[in-house]
TrEMBL record:
NADP-dependent dehydrogenase with broad substrate specificity acting on 3-hydroxy acids. Catalyzes the NADP-dependent oxidation of L-allo-threonine to L-2-amino-3-keto-butyrate, which is spontaneously decarboxylated into aminoacetone. Also acts on D-threonine, L-serine, D-serine, D-3-hydroxyisobutyrate, L-3-hydroxyisobutyrate, D-glycerate and L-glycerate. Able to catalyze the reduction of the malonic semialdehyde to 3-hydroxypropionic acid. It comes from the Bacteria. This is NADP-dependent 3-hydroxy acid dehydrogenase YdfG. It catalyses: L-allo-threonine + NADP(+) = aminoacetone + CO2 + NADPH; 3-hydroxypropanoate + NADP(+) = 3-oxopropanoate + NADPH + H(+). Its EC number is 1.1.1.298, 1.1.1.381. Pfam families: adh_short (PF00106). It comes from Brevundimonas intermedia. Keywords: Oxidoreductase. Belongs to the short-chain dehydrogenases/reductases (SDR) family.
């Protein structure tokens, strides 16, 4: 057993989550892999156990199902070897808002929002008590861009960014590191799964490049890591513009433009 914290990764059966599993295993950290496809996770776990010698548990769970989410949440809450949560499981949703069914939107929110929130909620008190550990939430640049037209998906990812920034503000001073990772288009199965038109795919980053960049941000304890953003100054300017507004919210008087 490793003396480093165990890493629980949701959505570890493919794509970004599987790449995270590979990177943390190569750092010698034990893993808990969570997703629905047990066969794929077992295959990944066998390979990584053989290559790295780490211990890996596989947990089959559909995080949109209350009983499965509760079981994973209980594990996160109670297993004090788990010191890093990678909140990665997520899905996309193709089509325009008026054509998406309410149930499809609700399922998306269950996975991309409710499960992320529940697992953060399950681990945070324990990490605060320990004064260490990390929560990594996988958002998306789409959460910054209503103009991309992926309204429901983008809204879930805007939630992930806000949650991460709020948690960083609350938990950072208590020794817990919180990172939001905002990929843009990355070559994974998400496009196929969400029914995206292959003819309209954006240019895609390779998943290994995305996760290696995210790990650089992780090691630097960066609060928000945006691997495709070439000019970090743009993000800083965006944050600065937002923060300039904040003191002005403390007023009891409506702005002049709203007074007749
Ligand atoms: N690829 C991209 O372009 C981008 C991806 N992202 C985000 O990255 C994250 C990972 O996606 P990515 O690797 O690209 O896509 P993949 O489709 O390859 O991976 C998604 C993972 O989530 C798991 N998953 C899906 N539904 C459920 C469920 N109901 N319960 C439990 N696990 C589930 C899948 O496993 P299984 O089917 O076995 O359950 C799989 O392991 C997502 O949050 C996504 O929004 C963000 C920006 C860009
Ligand atoms: C489905 C998508 O839109 C993509 N994964 C992204 O977040 O860029």
């Amino acid at each position: 057993m490793s003396d480093q914290p165990t890493v629980l990764i949701t959505g570890a059966s493919s794509g970004i989550g599987a790449a995270y599993a590979d990177r943390f295993a190569r750092r010698g950290q034990d893993l808990v892999l969570v997703a629905r496809d047990e066969v794929r996770m077992e295959a990944l776990a066998s390979k990584l156990r053989a290559q790295t010698g780490v211990s890996i548990d596989v947990v089959k769970a559909d995080l949109t199902q209350a009983a499965d989410l509760a079981a994973v949440s209980k594990r996160v809450r109670e297993d004090d070897r788990i010191g890093v949560l990678i909140n990665n499981a997520g899905a996309g949703l193709s089509g325009v808002f008026v054509e998406q069914s309410s149930i499809a939107q609700q399922n998306l929110v269950a996975l991309n929002v409710a499960a992320v929130l529940e697992l953060a909620n399950a681990i945070a008190p324990r990490l605060v008590q320990a004064g260490s550990g990390a929560i990594v939430n996988i958002g998306s640049v789409v959460g910054l861009a209503p103009e991309f037209g992926l309204t429901t998906y983008g809204a879930t990812k805007a939630f992930v960014l806000f949650l991460s920034q709020g948690l960083a503000f609350e938990l950072g001073p208590k020794g817990v590191y919180v990172q939001a990772v905002l990929p843009s288009g990355t070559r994974t199965e998400i496009w196929d799964r969400s029914g995206a038109d292959p003819a309209n795919l954006p240019s895609l980053m390779e998943v290994a490049d995305l996760v290696d960049a995210a790990m650089v941000g992780f090691d630097r304890r960066e609060p928000v890591t945006i691997p495709p953003l070439q000019d970090a100054g743009l993000w800083e300017a965006f944050q600065g513009a937002r923060q300039v507004m904040l003191p002005g919210f403390a007023t009891t008087v409506p702005a002049d433009r709203y007074r007749g």
